[in-house]
Amino acid sequence: MKLSSVAFLSFTAFASADTITEVANTLAEEGVSACNVIRDEGQCHAAKDENGDSCEWCECQAVPPVCVTKDQANQLPAGVFKCSSGSPGLFQFVEDRSHHLKETLQGNSDICDASSKSISGYMDIKGSKYDENGEDKHLFFWMFEKRNQDENVSQEEIPFVVWLTGGPGCSSTLALLTENGPCSVNEDGKSTTTNPYSWTEAAHVLWLDQPL
């Protein structure tokens, strides 16, 4: 990495967006990537460099974090910078707000529906304007794959549905266990009964809880 590129990476943490764009154009001939003008972690993980590789977000206790290319990340001191690239569970719908799906449990289980693979975990939300004091949200989700999948049908042809009960603040787990989910809870509170009319008869479905 050239000295001018290193200086530019530090500069992006403080300068305005217009100034960064102007300087980036000036340094483009020296190999500064489009990754380097990104100042948000979620946007960095979602972006790709000129070679089609994912940009990497690198953090260091001594200096502000920077968004760099894969090659630039490899040139940074490993013991000083901690770099991470995008993952399938990390995505972004709104500027400055990133979401990360983290699986905590998956497999076929007789807890609800043994005929369908299920995945549960949390969606982490960072950067919301409603969490300015650092109250990042961790929303529970539970997903079940479509039942009785035909080997001749590709995964791309199976619909993927996200269910939000609404409210706001209502738990989508309520719908999963009492309405359109793959099972319902029996009166003993310890076992479940398969729901033959579940939406998982036709699609992969993810039930996502919502915050107040």
How would you characterize the overall build of this protein?
18% of the residues lie in helices and 31% in strands. It contains five helices and eleven strands. Helix 1 packs antiparallel against helix 2. The longest helix is centred in the first third of the chain and has 11 residues, at 17-27. It is elongated and about 60 Å long.
How would you summarize this macromolecular structure in one to three sentences?
This protein has 212 residues and is of the alpha+beta class. The chain has helices at residues 3-11, 17-27, 41-46, 70-75, 172-178; strands spanning 56-59, 66-68, 82-85, 90-94, 97-109, 113-126, 137-144, 160-163, 183-185, 192-194, 204-208. The chain has five helices and eleven strands; from the N terminus they run H-H-H-E-E-H-E-E-E-E-E-E-H-E-E-E.
Fold blueprint:
Blueprint: H1 3-11, H2 17-27, H3 41-46, E1 56-59, E2 66-68, H4 70-75, E3 82-85, E4 90-94, E5 97-109, E6 113-126, E7 137-144, E8 160-163, H5 172-178, E9 183-185, E10 192-194, E11 204-208
Parallel strand pairs: 8-11
Antiparallel strand pairs: 1-2, 1-3, 4-5, 5-6, 6-7, 7-11, 9-10
Helix pairs in contact: 1-2
Kindly list the characteristics that best describe this protein:
3-stranded antiparallel sheet; 18% helix; 212 residues; alpha+beta; 6-stranded mixed sheet; disordered N terminus; single chain
